Amino acid sequence: MLLFYQPELTNGVKHLDADESRHAVKVLRLKEGSHIHVTDGHGNLYEARITDENHRKCGFELLQNHPEQAFRTYRHLVIAPTKNMDRMEWLVEKATEIGVDRISLIKCSNSERTVVKTDRLIKKAVSAMKQSLKATLPQVDEIVSFKNYLQNETAQQKFIAYVDFENPVELQTVIHPGEENVVLIGPEGDFSPEELQMALDSGFRKVSLGTSRLRTETAGLAAVHLLNLFGK
């Protein structure tokens, strides 16, 4: 399947952008009449036919929509970005492949990175969506302070992963299928005791991701994987 991304499909745009057009016409050598698939990133997956093999503005007509079946549970990952952005890009890519609805970035007391350009992360998410043949692009939020995030979170089920090996509550045992589940992942130095208490006071429940001490991006991916396994 040849999958392309056009977020403006719902606004009547029936051509690929410059990069996608160049890839389709110059790299893949697609011609007028060639069949492709196009998604808007909102769960719609269209069969389409190329009508204009223009390498700057490749036109197409829509033939049929095969909507992607929505996942039962809304999967929201909130994470403090790592100092090395390559690791965050890896996380966004793999989380998109596995399945995630939203990724929010937060600044914590122990954060080593407080500024993030999300456009690069979104590009990684788009690439992963197409590579894994998905039709839903996760929302990637701009970084905000931990306090600001807590003040605006309205999820039904809220969990904070905290390195506490005496904590017996494992994430997979408390996931609520069919509802919005949000999991907080802290920086390499973990959440401060004050941040943990703020989260608990805001209705979050402390959970464990297992017996191993995990890197931030590994913990994020583990949380996404558990939400997919136990949120069906």
UniProtKB/TrEMBL annotation:
One of its GO terms (cellular component) is cytoplasm. The keyword Plastid does not apply. Its EC number is 2.1.1.193. It comes from the Bacteria. The keyword Ribosomal protein does not apply. It is an enzyme of class 2 (transferase). Keywords: Cytoplasm, Methyltransferase, rRNA processing, S-adenosyl-L-methionine, Transferase. GO terms for molecular function: rRNA (uridine-N3-)-methyltransferase activity. CDD domains: RsmE-like. It is found in: Cytoplasm. It catalyses: uridine(1498) in 16S rRNA + S-adenosyl-L-methionine = N(3)-methyluridine(1498) in 16S rRNA + S-adenosyl-L-homocysteine + H(+). It holds the Pfam family Methyltrans_RNA. Residues 16-58 form the Ribosomal RNA small subunit methyltransferase E PUA-like domain. Residues 76-227 form the Ribosomal RNA small subunit methyltransferase E methyltransferase domain. GO terms for biological process: rRNA base methylation. Specifically methylates the N3 position of the uracil ring of uridine 1498 (m3U1498) in 16S rRNA. Acts on the fully assembled 30S ribosomal subunit. Belongs to the RNA methyltransferase RsmE family. PANTHER family: 16S RRNA (URACIL(1498)-N(3))-METHYLTRANSFERASE, RIBOSOMAL RNA SMALL SUBUNIT METHYLTRANSFERASE E. This is Ribosomal RNA small subunit methyltransferase E. It comes from Roseivirga pacifica.
